[in-house]
Amino acid sequence: MGLLDYFTRRPDGRAEPVSPPPIEPLAPTAERKPGKVTLAVIVGAGVAAALGQFIPTEESGRKVEASVGRDGTLQVRHISGKQYLRAYLDIVGVATACDGITTYRGKPIKAGQQFTEAQCAAMLEEELIAHAQGVMKCTPGLALSSNPTIERRREGPRFAAVSLAYNVGVRRYCGSTGASRFNAGAYDSGCEALTWWNKAGGRVVKGLVARRERERRVCIGGLRVLK
Predict the structure, then answer these.
(1) DSSP codes joined into one string, 161-175
(2) Fold of 5-226
(3) Is this structure's pTM higher than 0.90?
């Protein structure tokens, strides 16, 4: 995900090419095999549900209800707003579908591909898992803790870190000042450093400033800020 993606993930009126074959079907989240790695296993159930609700709003502008099912998978239910079930070309010509997804399992999305709501939900969790794994690998200072006090302190930064990585990419996040500060246990200053990622095309963009501020509030105040 690139910084420009936040503003270009809407159809721009360009004619769409002939639709290629749809992507290989995915099993709905409720039918996934037991034992599979889930987002909740990586970041905790609370953070997983929060990301499942936050990312669709930020990337697609839609409202969803998100929770973690009994099998540990992320359950996302669409409530309102536009669903991008048919891939489109954004204003820079990148094929995009669902909630800001431009690649899936290492392959680029193709304009015109069609998805079901269940497929988009499954793809969202897979993309979040991939980004969360990268974040946790380079930021062990945000690891899950069995100590309730430590865990409450880390939940907000963990949420914000994964949200940022989903938007700008794991590599950029891992090389950031924010990641370094989190690893040093300087959580509040790490949260502030995440707000520096507010530019697109070399200029500060109002929408990115607003998104980084929303992430910063959760980063410092914890998941209760989202309630």
Answers:
(1) HHHHHHHH-HHHHHT
(2) Lysozyme (1.10.530)
(3) no
